Amino acid sequence: MRRIFIFLISIFICASASAREVYSLNDDWQFFYKLDTSSDNARRISLPHTWNLDALAGQGTYHQTTANYSRNIFVPAEWMGKRLFIKFHGVQSVADLFVNGHHVGEHRGGWTAFTFEITKHLEYGKENSLVVVVSNAYQNNVLPTSSEENLYGGIYRDVELIVTEPTTISPLYYGTDGVIVHQNKITDTSVDATVSVYITTLSEKACDLALTVRAPTGDVVLSRYIKGRIEGNNKPINIPITLEEPLLWYPSEPNLYTITVGIGTHEEDQVSATTGFRRIEASADSGLRINGERVPIRGVALHHDRAAIGSALRTRHYDEDLEQIRDIGANAIRSTTAPHAQYLYDRCDEMGMLAWIDMPFTRAPYLSDVFYYATNSFRDNGLQQLREIILQNYNHPSIVMWGIYSLIWQRGDNVLDYVRELNSTAKALDPSRATVACSNQDGDINFITDLIVWQQSLGWERGVIDDVKVWSDKLHTEWSHLCSAVAYGEGGSIDQQTDLPLKSGEIDKRWLPEQWHTSMHEGYAKILNTDEKFWGIWINNMYEFGSVRHNDGISRTGLITFDHKDKKDAYYLYRALWNKEQPTLHIAEKRRNVRQDSMQVVKVYSSAAEAPTLLVNKEAVTLNEVAPCIYESDAVPMTPRTQVVVKAGEMEDHTTITIGNALVQSR
C-alpha cells in the first residue's frame, strides 16, 4: 500500500505546476530502546511520541535513556533530480539521523525544529531506511542542564518529507521555512519592511523571485519581481517593501498579512509566511506598548505537557488550553524553558494573545544541579538554540519578547559575560522585540535585558504575604528605572484540604493543601493586581506539570490540574479579576466539604454587576467585599449538612458543607 501511495504521489508531482511537495512521515515507525537485546521487540508507533507515557500513568519509571526510531520510505524513480529534505519539528533532546546506514546529521536541543538534506544518500525506485537515534539524558553541553520539567524523550512533534527542485527556498536555515520578514519602521500610516529569502542551490548563481503581499482582507496590496544573486553562506536575497495605510496588528485587532515568495516564472518553488505589523515599545514609565497603546500584561506560564500524553501534544490540546487561558481573562502566555509548537503561536497570532518565549538557560531549585558549564561547547549550544528559537518564530506578531534566562545564579565562571552575549545576540538578530529575564536574585544580572520579571515567594517559605507590599514599594522607589514585572505561584493540591491557615516556614512539599495555594494567590492579587508600576503580572503556572523531581511526579503549582480538567479556586479568582467580558460567580472551598467547626466563613468570588447574595439553609447572610472580587461572610452557624447558595442576577452557584470531626481531609 505504501508503494502504491508514493507512486500516485509521484504522478501528481509530475503534473503539478509547483515543484515543492510536503508529506507527513508521522506513521509506520518502529520504536525500541537502545538497550533492547533485539529489534524484534520493536513497537509500531505513530508520531508524535514519547517513551515516558508509562511513567505518567504510574505504571513504570521515568527513563532518561537512548532509543531508536526506524521506518522505510519508498522513493520513486521519478524523483531523480529532485532534492529531498526531512524536517523534524521537535525531538527531545539529541537526535542523530541515519539514511541507508549513512550518518546524515546531529541536532542538539529538544525544543526547536531542524532539517537535514538526504538527497545524496537515497536509492531511487527502492525502499530506503531511516533510523533516528534519540537521547533525553542530561548532557553538560546541551541546554538545559538543570530543569524542573520532565524531558520526556522521543520524536514528540511532527516529521515531514520535503521534495523540491535543485534551486529552492531553503528549509535548512536554522530550521525555518526560509522566508523572514524584518519590520524596520512601523507607523500608523506606513510599514517599511525587508523580506529576507534564503536560497539553496546546487549550481545556479541567480534566480528570479516573485513576491506577493496579501492584506488581511485577502486583497493583493503589493507585487514585486526581482532577479536575485545567490551568494550562499546563509546570505539572503533581501527584498525591501513598503505598505501604505496598513492594517496594524493589535491584540484587539489581530490583522495578519500573507507574504508569498516564488522562484521562477513557472513557480518552481513557493513559500508563504504569515505575519502582522506592529510596534513594540517598553519603558519603566509607560510599561509595554503595542503601536503606542499600553497593554497591561495579565499572563500565565505554560509548560509543555499534560497527563497521559506527556509532551506529545496535538493541535486540539493547544486549542483546549487557549480556550481556558482566554476564559480566565489572560492576555499573554509565557512559554517556559523553550518554545511550544508553531501551531500555538499561529493561534496566538489569530487571537491577539501575546507571547514570551524562553530559551532553555534555566536553573531548577536544587543545590545538586549545575546549570552553567564554562565550556565552548555549552556556550555554543546555547547560542545555537537561541538563534533557532528567534529565527523560527520571527514572523509571529504575537511574540513580543525573547526570554534570555530564568532563575539562574550570578555566581560562577563568566556567567554575566554569557548572559550579555546571549542578550546582544538576541538584539542583533531581532532589534524589534524586547529581551526579558525572570530573576529571583540580586545583582548586576538584573540590568542586562530590556525587561525584568521578579519571581517572588514572600509569605510562603519566609515572611508573610503582606511583605510583598513592602518589597514592591521599595522596588518602585529604589529601582524605578527598571522596567519591572512580577511572577509568583506555589503548589496546592485539590486532593489535600485543611482547616489550618497558611504559615510561612512550615511548608512541606508533600503536604500542599489547596487552601494554602488559594491564600497566597488572594494575598498577592490584592496587593499587585492594581499596581500599574509593573508592566505585567505573571502567574506560575496555568497548569500543573510533570516533574519526577517532585514527590508524586507532578508540580502542583498550576491553577488547573495536570490533566487540564479541574480548576482550582485560584482560577476563579483570576477569572473574576481579569475576564471583563464574562462575569464570574463562584463559592470557594467547595472541595473542603467536610469541616470541623460548626461556625464557618463562606467565601465567594464575584465580578457580577449586581452584588452577590448568600443563602445558608435558605436564610439570607450578609456578604462583605474584603478585596476586589472577593466576598466573605461573618462566621455562620452550620448544621450537620448545610446548603449554601449564592446568587447574582441570573447567576447562581451552590454547595453542601458537612460538619464532621476531621481536622484535615484528603480524597
What is shown here, in short?
The protein is an alpha+beta fold and 667 residues long.
Question: Top keywords for this entry?
Answer:
667 residues, alpha+beta, Jelly Rolls, Immunoglobulin-like, TIM Barrel, eight-stranded parallel barrel, six-stranded antiparallel beta sheet, 9 helices, 35% strand, globular, disordered N terminus, disordered C terminus
How is the topology of this model organized?
Blueprint lengths: L1 H14 L5 E4 L4 E5 L9 E3 L7 H4 L9 E10 L7 E6 L2 E2 L1 E6 L2 E7 L5 E4 L8 E10 L18 E2 L3 E6 L3 E2 L9 E8 L3 E8 L1 E2 L5 E9 L5 E10 L7 E8 L12 E7 L5 E7 L4 E4 L3 E4 L2 E2 L2 E6 L12 H14 L3 E4 L6 H10 L2 E5 L17 H17 L6 E8 L8 H15 L4 E6 L11 E5 L11 H12 L5 E5 L7 E3 L15 H15 L7 E4 L5 E2 L7 E2 L13 H10 L6 E3 L6 E2 L3 E2 L2 E4 L6 E4 L2 E3 L1 E5 L2 E4 L2 E2 L3 E8 L2 E9 L4 E3 L1
Parallel strand pairs: 25-26, 25-33, 26-27, 27-28, 28-29, 29-30, 30-31, 31-33, 37-46
Antiparallel strand pairs: 1-12, 2-3, 2-4, 4-10, 5-9, 5-12, 6-11, 7-8, 7-10, 13-16, 14-15, 15-19, 17-18, 17-20, 20-21, 22-23, 23-24, 32-47, 34-35, 36-39, 38-44, 39-43, 40-41, 40-45, 42-43, 45-46
